[in-house]
Amino acid sequence: MINNKWIRLLVFLPIPIVMIVINYLVDPGGIFSNDNEEIAKSIVNGNKTLFFNGNVNEREVKHYLIKNMPEQVECIAVGPSLVMGVRKNDVGTESFYNLGESGADMYDIFAQFGLMQIYHKKFDRVVFCVDSYFFDETLNKTLILNKGLKPYAEYMLAVVDGKDVAKPDEKSLGLTNYSELISPSYFKSSLDLIKRRGKSSLTGDRWIKVDGDVYEQGYYMPDGSWVYGLKIQRQDDAYVIDHSNKYDIKKQFSKGKHLGNYPKDSFEKLLMYLLAHNIQVELYLCPVAPALWDRIDTPGYYVMNELESYAHEVAAKYGLKITGSYNPYNLGMTNADFYDSRHVRHELLSKYFDFKP
Prior knowledge:
By secondary structure, the protein is an alpha/beta fold. The protein contains 19 helices and 9 strands. 42% of the residues are buried.
């Protein structure tokens, strides 16, 4: 008779095999293909580049954008999705790359500066979107999208701290990706993508070059900035109000919490490092929609008001240019100026903010 353990093995062995095969073929984060780097190269080559939902890791796209962009750039923009609409015409130079990423926190941004250090990229000025994702330690503990690039963040944190540290080994870091082949959470993402895209999630194009202006999907401009898809662009002020009313303010604005001292200390060390290398730093405070501000400008929500005061203190201390305000009423903005509760319509950025030198 066949031993029971061999029966169990024969029954359950196909499950991890199926998981590995599907995770590899669907690859919702684009970690087993070269799509992320090819998209970055397409951007640097001057193309509008559209990628379909899933199969692409935007943090890795910006990783490879840094790797492949010119050695000398006049201006860059860093921060979360709030800064992703800033384009070369907004900053007043053709020599510009937007490195913004959805939900970018302190470690994401430090990782990008670490990558620029490692790849010997030079830039003259940086538009730095100052947002709670960077300074709110409660949020930093919950955002884990950057785990693959975190060694670069730790490297740069050591650099600005004046420590002599070795650069991360890219080859050894790449090996850790293969653990996702047997990851149940990655498998769930694979199945979710199959539900959304069907057979095309396995065999269809993951990204394409485009030459128009508006598509169902969002796309990258040749400077790395982002253009939202048609559905988002069509959202009106009624949608913004509804989105603001449903927004999870307790989590996203950390009710009852204050700014973290470690992010503030790390931020100022980064500022001093950049200024010491003759890099001009410009601070950008992106407002929330009025309907959302009305909810968070209440007792118990300290983060945004504290952050605005801190940003102005830092700007005065280091002689930095600063534009914007988290309070939309300070700028004369309405809900119609936003795509949703957080994102200003890209075509209005230069109307309300001064990004030019």
